[in-house]
């Protein structure tokens, strides 16, 4: 009988102890989630503060989607440098366009991507991380400042999203791009679950 009582006592102690640990873990996880999701950045407000007007995404020109969400990840197709007036920045860096024009083209491309992203997810505050981007620069063979061009995009993502706008990326020179656009960028975005 004493062995059973001791066993029962140990079982009760274990249940109480394990229950406290589970409660503490749950509380800790809730606190961590609150810190991750409440970083004080309102992406929608930042866009307004920066004077950026998102554009109405145009329809894809072929059998593909501008954005596709799989789980909590959004994959955005390659976008070009769409100006607010509906035109695009066209030309080749190093022959037709100067570096500053390329940087501006990459920023326009970022705005185009944000426009499609918002159309896909509804609210840019759902963005947890800009994960990766691939930047393609329409450039002459002697042009060497591809990464500086794509900085126009990368800087915009950090302006809008803060630290979660920092991303892995590639900046690649191309001999041509569709419709002679100066820049094309695609990106991968993680959403809060």
Account of the 3D structure:
This protein folds into two domains: 38 residues; 149 residues, 60s Ribosomal Protein L30, Chain: A (2-Layer Sandwich). It has four helices and five strands. It starts with a helix and ends with a strand. The longest helix is centred in the first third of the chain and has 36 residues. The N terminus is likely disordered. It has a five-stranded mixed β-sheet. The chain has 193 residues and is an alpha+beta fold. Helix 3 crosses helix 4.
TL;DR of this structure?
The protein is built from 4 helices and 5 strands, in the order H-H-E-E-H-E-H-E-E. It is of the alpha+beta class and 193 residues long.
Question: Secondary structure elements and their pairing?
Answer:
Layout: H1 2-37, H2 43-49, E1 67-70, E2 73-79, H3 99-121, E3 127-138, H4 146-161, E4 168-174, E5 183-191
Parallel strand pairs: 3-4
Antiparallel strand pairs: 1-2, 2-5, 3-5
Helix pairs in contact: 3-4
